[in-house]
Every structure is written in structure tokens, then in C-alpha cells.
Amino acid sequence: QATSMSLDEVSAAVSVLLGFAPPAMLPAPSSAKLNELLLPKPFDRPRAVFLMQIDGSHDSVDSFVSDAGSIYKTKIDVAKNAATGLTDRDELIVIRSDESSGSDVLDNELTNLATWLEGSYQKADSKLIIPLKSGNSLTLLLNKEVDVEFASSLISLLKTIKRGIQVHEDFSGGIVSPAELLVCHFTGIKALEDEYGSAEIVKQGVEVVQTALTKAFDQLQGAYN
């Protein structure tokens, strides 16, 4: 975990992990951060990266922790969108999350999300209820735009993971084995903060995203190992 990285540093790190060369003119401080990231296994190039950009205040985002050693967390300096500059080509497949408006989420998508997070979708009451590890639950009122946006961000994460696994399986065992980059931009926490400030629902939202990320990473590891 680094305190912060520039967008160029993030792009360089992702490039190296995917098996590509970093920019030739990378400044010395940036190279040091890159070495820190690669130090545990300096010659290991997984050729698959899941890049998750989470918008929100430092208090919310800094609370994210993980028991998984393969997760690396950093703050991106001055970045509205963590576009890496890497695009689809013969040796690389890039899968990006759908950042379209959350107002058009479908009932089946909400049902799938509720099942994934072991919660429930109550269509008649326009409620999505997600259990928390604390024993409480987060209740999203789907007649509120901000709650729909948060749910939509979770749906986008789930769909990105599913697409990534499907693409990986399609290429497994084939002659061509491209590197794979999954990019997800999560705006749901910031949406809750903008609407509710520091209310309890924001903390509950962070806890839900933590759970969702753990599930997503477990699914990816299961598919890629």
C-alpha cells in the first residue's frame, strides 16, 4: 500500500503487471514506488489486473482493508477517472465497467445483486436490503435517485466481474493468451456522501462495498487460479 500515486505511476504499474514495459522516462521517485509494488515477487507478471477506482472522501475510502495479499491500495492524485491509457489490442483485452445512468436498472439485475450479496429485493416496496457483518442491514430506497445510483454501481461491479471471468474462460486453453485488464469506476460511495454527508448510511455503504470487493476478488481468484 502506497500513500498516493500519480495516474502515470498507476498506468506504469498496471503495464508491468500485465507483462508490458513501463514508460522509458519514468522519474526516479515513480520507479521507487513501482519497485515497492513489485518487490514481493519482482519477476511475477500475473498478466491479469483488476483496477478498481473508488470515488469518495478519504475517511470513507481509507477504511478499505483486505486480508488478501494480492490487493494493493493507493490514493490516485488528481484523477477524475483512472484511465490507464491501455486499450484493446492483440496482446491485451480491456474490460471496463458500464458507467451509464443508474435510473434504468432492471428488476433482474437488482434480484441478481441481492442474491450475490445474500440480501433481498422487495419489488413491491422498492427496497433493496443488504445484510452487514455487524448484524444490521443497509436498506436502499429505490424511489430515491441516490440510492439507485449506489445500487447501480454495485450492479456494474458485478457485471464487470462476470464479463471478465467469461472472457478469461473463452481464452483459456487457446493458442492466444492475451493479458487481461478489468477496470471498474465505483461512484456509489461519493453519491451517498453527497446526499447524506457523514450519516450512518454512508458507513453502511462502505461496509457493503468492502463485502462486494471481497466477493469479487474471491470469484476472480477462483476463475484465474
UniProtKB/TrEMBL annotation:
Domain DUF7794 positions: 1-225
InterPro entries: DUF7794
One GO cellular component term: endomembrane system
Domain of life: Eukaryota
Pfam families registered for this protein in UniProt: DUF7794
Entry protein name: DUF7794 domain-containing protein
Organism listed in the record: Aegilops tauschii subsp. strangulata
Upper taxonomic lineage: Eukaryota, Viridiplantae, Streptophyta, Embryophyta, Tracheophyta
